[in-house]
Design goal:
Elements: H1 12-27, E1 34-38, E2 54-65, E3 71-75, E4 81-82, E5 91-95, E6 101-109, E7 116-119, E8 137-140, E9 144-145
C-alpha cells in the first residue's frame, strides 16, 4: 500500500478570510507594520535578525487585498526608506505593528520575483538583488502575499 500526499483545495472564501486575518494581524491596534531588510545570511529561525540595513514602514492599513487574491503590501512613504547600512539585501522580515515577526523571505529586484521586491539600487550582472548605499533610498516594489 502506498501513501499519497494530501492535496487540499481551498475555496476562495477561505483564502479571502486568511488574507483579511493576516492584514488585521499586521496592523494590530496601533502603530505600523514594517519590512526589515538584511544583507546578512538568513538565520535558521524567524525573528533572529541582527540590525537591518533598512526598514520600510508600511501604511495603515498595511496593504490591500486584490481581486487576484493577494495581499499587496503598501509602503507608508512611496519615496522610499533610508538605507542605514550599505549592502545587498538578501532576506527580509514582515513585522507586525506590535513587533512580532510574522514571516520572512528572500529579497530581489522587481525582475526576479522574490518574496520582497525592492528598487532604487543597481543590480550587478549575474545577481538578483540590487546594491544600496547608506544614506540612499530603498523602495518597495510589487510585494504581495497570497
Amino acid at each position: 500500500m502506498s501513501a499519497t500526499e494530501p492535496v487540499w483545495r481551498v475555496a476562495p472564501a477561505l483564502l479571502l478570510a486568511q488574507l483579511q486575518a493576516t492584514l488585521a494581524r499586521l496592523d494590530g491596534e496601533t502603530g505600523n507594520a514594517c519590512i526589515r531588510l538584511y544583507s546578512t545570511p538568513r538565520p535558521e529561525g524567524m525573528g533572529q535578525g541582527a540590525a537591518p540595513m533598512a526598514q520600510v514602514q508600511l501604511a495603515r492599513p498595511a496593504g490591500v487585498i486584490t481581486a487576484q487574491g493577494l495581499l499587496q503590501l503598501t509602503p507608508a512613504d512611496t519615496a522610499g526608506a533610508m538605507v542605514l547600512e550599505s549592502g545587498t539585501p538578501r532576506w527580509g522580515e514582515l513585522v507586525a505593528a506590535d513587533g512580532a515577526v510574522l514571516a520572512d523571505g528572500n529579497v530581489t529586484d522587481a525582475e526576479h520575483g522574490g518574496c520582497f521586491q525592492v528598487s532604487g539600487g543597481q543590480t550587478p550582472e549575474g545577481d538578483d538583488a540590487p546594491v544600496f548605499y547608506a544614506g540612499g533610498l530603498i523602495t518597495l516594489a510589487a510585494t504581495a502575499l497570497g
